[in-house]
Amino acid sequence: MFELxxxxxxxxxxxxxxxxxxxxASFAVEAAPVEGTHCRHCDEDPAPPDADAADDTTxxxxxxxxxxxxRIDSSKETAAQLSISEVESSSGSWEILVAPRGHHERLxxxxxxxALHLLRAMRDTMRELGASADPPDDPRxxxxxxxxxxxxxxxxxxxxxxxxAIPQLPHWIADEIGGGARHQIKTRTCVWCGxxxxxxxxxxxxxxxxxxxxxxxxxxxxxxxELMIVPRTHAADxxxxxxxxxxxxxxxxxxxxxxxxxLGDPPYNLFLHTAPAGERLDQTFHWxxxxxxxxxxxxxxxxxxxxxxxxxxxxxxxxxxxxxxxxS
Length: 328
Known about the structure:
Blueprint lengths: L1 E5 L6 E5 L22 H5 L15 E13 L14 E12 L13 H20 L9 E8 L11 E7 L4 H17 L3 H12 L3 E4 L3 E4 L10 E5 L11 H17 L8 E6 L14 E6 L6 H6 L2 E3 L3 H14 L1
Parallel strand pairs: 2-12
Antiparallel strand pairs: 1-2, 3-4, 4-6, 5-6, 5-10, 7-8, 8-9, 9-11, 10-11
């Protein structure tokens, strides 16, 4: 049977498959390497080839596409043809933050100092991209993504983070902002603070509880072994973090990603949800990370209805990952 669960923030429904025996082997999907033997990021690194990669933590910022997003007016009769003449404006960008030459390891296995430098470069670049909106009052959302494995859409084996400056508010973020505001009006509390506290106290879906973060499998997880990483300190904007906060964030991210070793070496997408650039959402939003292992293809029911079907109950997923962390 499908157990329907409703996300307390967005209101979206997920179907958790509860009539299947949990089989660990069914979710042991190995990340497929990106095809090709040549790494252009190593080639483009200005450091000399004999430099000690283990000691180098210099992060390079590379702009892949300036003005990456083209807006087309769909109300025009010819817009369906996607003619370049229908483009009203172009803005935003697609950028990548690249680890030094020779760093092809997973983020979980990167030297802690390099993980910190990647997050620091991400924070600083997000600040700059947010401040460069033209005109200044244009909507701009900076999406940070870290992908691992070909199944997750990774384009390179080289360790990197991607940043997209999107000239509109994505619907996922809009629904989270709206849900957070409704919860604040109704209860005078932050929904993410409440979720982190409740999951830690219950323990049923808890994976990791640290000084500054709570990591758990959401009750209405939309994908198998999905995790949410919520900071204990309430804040809406990731870019407000100082270097001490970033160091704690990097450490928790690496431990959380290491928990996926319970499944072998799975592909995944790690992404940040934070306040849109220039928006003051201090009371109603709470920045957080989401981790989605890519363990299965999207089936027909999900495509037809947009109803997420999760074949691994979050309670089972949390137990598997929590047990692995305790043993390691």
